[in-house]
Amino acid sequence: MNPKEEILHLTKVLEQANYEYYVMDAPTMADFEYDRLLRRLEELEAAYPEFASPLSPAKRVGGQALDRFEKVEHPVPLESLQDVFSEDEVADFDARLRQTIAAPLYSVEPKVDGLSVALEYIDGHFFRGATRGDGTVGEDVTENLKTIRSIPMHIDNAPSRLIVRGEVFMPRTVFEALNEEREKKGQPLFANPRNAAAGSLRQLDPAIAAERKLDILIFNLQLAEGVEFQTHGETLDFLRNLKFKTIPYELCDSAASVQETIRSIGENRYDYPYDIDGAVVKLNALADRKILGSTAKFPRWACAFKYPPEIKETLLLDIVVQVGRTGVLTPKAVVAPVRLAGTTVTNATLHNQDFISQKDICIGDTVRIRKAGEIIPEVLEVVKEKRPETAQPYFLPECCPVCGAKTQRDEDGAALRCTGAECPAQLSRNIAHFVSRGAMDIEGLGESIVEQLIAVGKIKSPADIYYLSVEDLKSLWKSGSKAAQKLYDAIQDSKSRDLSRLIYGLGIRQVGEKAAKLLAKSFGSLDRLMEAGEEELTNLRDVGAITAQCIARWFADPQSQHMILRLREAGVNFESSVTQTDQRFAGLTFVLTGALSLFTRDEATEKIEACGGKASGSVSKKTSYVVAGENAGSKLKKANELGIPVLTEEEFLNMLA
After folding, report:
1. Distances (CA, A) of 180 to 184, 187, 190, 325, 375
2. Residue 575 main-chain phi, psi, to 5 deg
3. For 515-553, how does the pLDDT look when each residue is reduced to its tens digit (9 = 90+)?
């Protein structure tokens, strides 16, 4: 078999394996064998790129990242459906249709809670995929859709042009694993699988979409050139035979049977591996659909029954507080076990203190709970008439329940945070920040290494990194002498980093890399910075009252002082290599515009900041000077309108000289 033939053969075998695994849930190929064949295909395509297909199974893990999504006009509009919320409305819908259609037959299907897309095939090859958008124009998400293994890339015996519509979703098990991982990393959680699916499908980097393990169910045939059908059921059967993963459906001939099927789907909704938020009722006969047509908004031949969220009463037994990796204190209600949305619920989120106070929640209350987005249980309201006389208002603690440090409310939000520099709950995140590239830049000290060191008790604070021996590090690798020595040397080298990096690495709220450089230049040493009060700090350019307060509070905390002491004893540099002695531009703001020929913008910005000035990107009344190169545009025009002095490059250099 020559390379071209082998590539074609492997492609066909792997596509069949994908179909059996992702569509039929009946794999016949072992994972090991699949991985072996996939690797062989990758090797062949690398050696013979002229034979590689852009739709190859080897390319379904994420292609090149995009700058933006192109707009796509749908050849057949992707209509939305009119919602109904009761069985009486379903009966009314049936009665309206019977005024025109003598004996309607309906297809009733679960309504998947995901993101609607159209898939287009030309001569049996996947050509393009687009989001619904407004129904007429969507976005091209072809590269991301290629990562969904249940979508066939090639179809045998397909119409010359085929367009199908489906719902992209994230399976519940994938969603739960994704949120667990995001929680570990201190990232915001997705509210529900639909949000997660939508966010994943609209990633500009297909590799991220591939990691999210999305799936799809096809629920409608939009276009099939040269093929005629009588009913919607026929189209779904046709698509299933083409190896699409299609929506299950049941045919009903009366309002009563439709209502019964809707109830059945609702009763079993939590047994599906994906979220559903309703049931779709469609007229089965395609000719009758054409007779009924559509309104300006919806087709007259279909409707979507929406299930109400399930709400249960239970007793709030206790409120416990969890401290996340970012230091945020999250209150959680411990409730008497209750069956809700398919699972037994024993905990419910209370979000923050504002939520507790607004709902007037007390321990011992009877509360009504529901699953927000059908996933996360939350307290909806208190049943006040059942409140015991002993109930007392609840307030989050003033000290962290993990480390005892004082808590502080965010200046711009409702979150309450632990301020402890050595809080165990925040340890892995604090260390990850401390060793990051913008901070102490310790190469090789990645997340997995940090987690291992924490697990065996070798580090309990970022400062403990500098007390690790080569022997401590050797245990992290099976044959780790060389790797351990390399990491040990990197840790030792980081001791000499500039003070600005250390300040940034300390993780003080409101202090980013830019502010850290300013503080290092202005004070020259960490000891001098520690002595500064809030008033002195606010005298610095770009340091406001809130930032000054965060800095002063951080250095006053006992945990911070202990960490500083440990860093000092380890020999970490506390001095700045650059001090702000030149203050000739103090209080002045410069704006650079046009094509500069004597220096780059970065060079000019460094010179301005070295003289105590500030470089801004926009012209305002607060601008002191505009430095204009050739072809200066709107910024120069605005400067002239405001009467702001304009400098040539030579005049700017003369000011520096």
Report:
1. 6, 10, 10, 13, 13
2. -110, 150
3. 998 899 889 999 999 999 898 898 887 788 889 999 999
Residue closest to 624 by CA, chosen among 592, 576, 602, 653: 592
Range of lowest pLDDT (25-34, 65-74, 249-258, 583-592): 25-34
Q: What is the pLDDT of residues 236-263, one digit of tens each?
A: 999 999 999 999 999 999 999 999 999 9
31: Cα within 13 Å, side-chain hemisphere: 1
Domain harbouring 557, CATH code: 1.10.150.20
Domain assignment present for residue 532? The answer is yes
DSSP percent split of the chain into helix, strand, coil, nearest 5: 40, 20, 40
Closest CA to 592 of 539, 517, 648: 648
Type of residue numbered 358: Q
526: closest CA among 488, 554, 490? Answer: 554
H-type alpha helices, 342-446? 353-359, 427-434
What's the Cα-to-Cα distance from 476 to each of 276, 466, 479, 481, 488, rounded to whole Å? 45, 17, 9, 10, 12
- Verify that 371 and 443 share a domain, yes or no: no
Active site residues: 111
Distance CA 76, CA 280 (A): 20
Digit-coded pLDDT (tens) for 605-653: 878 877 878 888 888 888 999 999 888 888 888 989 899 999 998 999 8
Average pLDDT over residues 15-39: 74
CA distances from 94 to 85, 233, 256, 282, 297 (A): 14, 19, 10, 10, 19
For residue 162, the surrounding DSSP H or E stretch is strand 161-169
pLDDT at 503: 96
Which segment of 182-186, 244-248, 598-602 scores lowest on mean pLDDT? 182-186
Give kind and range of the element (H or E) at residue 348. Answer: strand 343-349
Q: Which residues pair with 119 in a beta bridge?
A: 129, 164
Predicted local distance difference test score (pLDDT) of residue 12: 84
Indicate if the pLDDT at residue 67 is higher than 70.
no
Could you tell me if 226 and 345 lie in one domain? no
Of 498, 494, 499, which is closest to residue 462 (Cα–Cα)?
494
Give the pLDDT band of residue 21 (cuts 50, 70, 90): low
Q: Do residue 225 and residue 96 come from a single domain?
A: yes
Joined together, the tokens standing for residue 138 give 């969507």
Return the amino acid letter for 217: L
If we measure between CA atoms, which residue out of 556, 565, 517, 562 comes closest to residue 534? 556
Half-sphere exposure of 169 (CA within 13 A, CB side): 22
Q: Is 242 left (phi over 0), alpha (psi -120 to 50) or beta?
A: alpha
Residues 488 and 572 in one domain: yes
Cα torsion for 563, 564, 566, 572, to the nearest 10°? 130
**Cα 112 versus chain centre, distance:** 21
User: Domain containing 99 — which CATH number?
Assistant: 3.30.470.30
What domain count does the chain have? 5
